[in-house]
Amino acid sequence: MTLRRTATLFAFCVAALLALGLVMLYSASMTQQGEAFLIKQSRFAALGVVACCLCAAMDYRWLRKLIWPGLIIACLLLAYTALKGREINGAKRWIEFPGFTFQPSELAKVVVIAMLAHYASQYRDRMKEFWRGLVIPGALAGSALVLVLAGKDFGTTMLLGLVVWIVLLIAGARLVYLVPLGLAAFGLICALLMGNEVRRTRIDAWLHPEKYEKTIAYQQLQAKYALGAGGVAGVGLGDGRQKTGFVPEHHTDFIFSVIGEEFGLAATLGLLGLYGLLCWCGFNIAWRASDVFGQLLVIGITFLIGVQVFINVGVVTLVLPNKGLPLPFISYGGSNLVVLLASAGLILSVARRAHDQPLTVAAPLDDNPFTALPRPT
User: Fold this and answer.
1) How far is CA 359 from CA 287, 292, 295, 321, 331, in A?
2) What is the pLDDT of residues 311-336, one digit of tens each?
3) Is the dihedral of CA 35, 37, 43, 48 positive or negative?
4) Does residue 80 contact residue 65 with C-beta atoms inside 8 Å?
5) Hey, which of 25, 54, 217, 373 would disulfide with 212, CB 3.0 to 4.6 Å?
6) How far is CA 312 from the centre of its chain?
7) Helix (H, G, I), strand (E, B) or coil at 116
8) In terms of pTM, does the model score above 0.70?
9) Extended strands (E) in 136-288
10) Chain segment 233-269, per-residue pLDDT in tens
11) Which of the 8 DSSP states describes residue 86?
């Protein structure tokens, strides 16, 4: 497939997900909030589309001039959020403004990915070194991760931490360094989770949902019932029952259950296929990028979307503990939607300046099989 068709298909996937999200948001909230959430989300969507078009039109390489100021600003916002942010369900994620709230961690995700892409493109041939390839970029990304964790946002910390690990791996960092780092980070997160009563109870509710069917596990169990009630073909758009007070947060983190109940298994599988197609387009664009910075930027954003979808669907289907992450382009939430659409614009910007054929593949660096990435000629 030509690059132009790939970019067009990617834009179509984003548009389809956005349209589905607006439809399902109205369906999910029609019995309680009417069109209130739809109107707000439509405004965010319009702002996000403008941001997407601007990012697609600009030269993404210009973004490199804003990397370090952007990282500093993101860290300051995260620090303020951890200290004085609005706390919901035990986590401080939001800064309140008149008429709306802002979630700095959404901005921090893209800033950290762009920073790693910029750093790895500068030190491409030294990424296999311990200090240049792991300690320095790990410390830079860790500055944002620690501040997200300070706000007790474990879900976003694990999501961004996994994406950072993947980007470093693909950028050329050695597995012999990354594996111990990943295990240590996983152990630290587990220890912090076990030391937090709310999160510890959530994990216990995930392992033994029958013990918490009327309390902690109620939300996930009701979402599971909604998916089961939908069957193969669903009960019909707007006719779902679990959204009428049975599934809390059904318009945000658990909107996948509404889709499953009203459109059935066929639609949910189709939705996952659409996400898969979007990720395939992203990786295809990355493979043909004209430079390492654009390549790693697209890979990082694509992994961010894919992993977030996996976690959200895993939580709704009771495969994973409840983590509170939205379904990309579909769940209600202005910060997430605007940042995702702007990120999609960056991917399209890379596609506009990419080559129609993959560039020459360089020999892998050291023992890392993922470093055989195309380089500029």
Assistant:
1) 8, 11, 11, 41, 37
2) 999 999 988 888 878 999 999 988 99
3) negative
4) no
5) 217
6) 10
7) helix
8) yes
9) none
10) 889 888 888 887 778 778 888 999 999 999 999 999 9
11) E
